[in-house]
Structure prediction request, 328 residues.
Amino acid sequence: MNVVIIGVGAMGCLFGAFLSPLTPVTLLGRWPEQLAALAQDGLTVVEVDGRSSRHQLWATNNPPAIPPADLALILVKSGQTAQAAQTIQPILKPDGLALTLQNGLGNLEKLTAVLGANRAVLGITAQGATMLEPGKIRHAGHGPTHLAYTPETERRVTAVANLFNQAGLQTELADNVDSLVWAKLAVNCGINPLTALLGVPNGFLTENESAKQIMMAAARETAIVAQSLGITLPYPDAGKRALQVAQATAANHSSMLQDIQRGAPTEIEAICGAVVSNGRKTGIPTPINAELYRMIKLQETGAWKLDIEKTLTSLQPLVSNLNTGGKT
Ligand code: KPL
Prediction:
């Protein structure tokens, strides 16, 4: 199976490191320092316990250099998905699959619009990675990957799942896309904006009581919007699920924190923004997601300064309000 990975960030590199011993893999990306580091020294993956491994990866910024692909893994930021779909259109074989493992809502739709429903599929992954420096990542989160399939894609998605499992990436098939996407979304709404605003690793949200409550409330608010759309999440309590993921990825810097730290646009539109707009459609108030969205927008422009106490104090009343059903 010829694999192309779109995106040379931490997650693209992580999947490249797992898959490349088994099958030909090309990474496609534009970040010059990363491409240079990968070409010169390969990729170093540091595990949470300190062990590290080296991997030779082939990465390029030149789409025409890439052989026809059976599988395109989409691991760019959600704001770049439409562009990624255009880029892989001439590379992906007629019976190839483009698989999004990205955060947020709307990625599958963007791939489908360009590649067709027969070639666009979606998965979610509990794997987590942090970029340490060009050519070096920390593998900071372990957990299953779920791939959604339809009758048309089932055979090919099964082949992808088999490849991932052989590579050591625990993978299962799932037949309910919406449940999968919103399950991950609820976790991302809980963890990503708050860690970015506070400038802390995910584990902080399990240790600080106020941060923990805000994380759990944001995840639960997202689950209520999902429910209003008729979507059942695969776990009973989104707040507890966010807590478990924050524990399992304690050492990780969330992707949104990493974006803020390198001055890149965040995925806030596809995460809290999507929850707020869906809540509006079904008449569900989303004060916590709306406030996290507003603060991240300010932080992106440099107008929100890092201040743990101030951030927690301004978010906490929204949680208390939610817990008392709006009655204070
Ligand atoms: O998906 C993630 C992210 O950082 O985007 C989590 C699960 C929160 C792990 O950090």
User: Anything to note?
Assistant: The radius of gyration is 19 Å. The longest strand covers residues 92-100. The mean pLDDT is 94. Residues 103, 128, 141, 187-188, 191-192, 202, 245, 249, 252, 254-255 surround ketopantoate (CB under 6 Å).
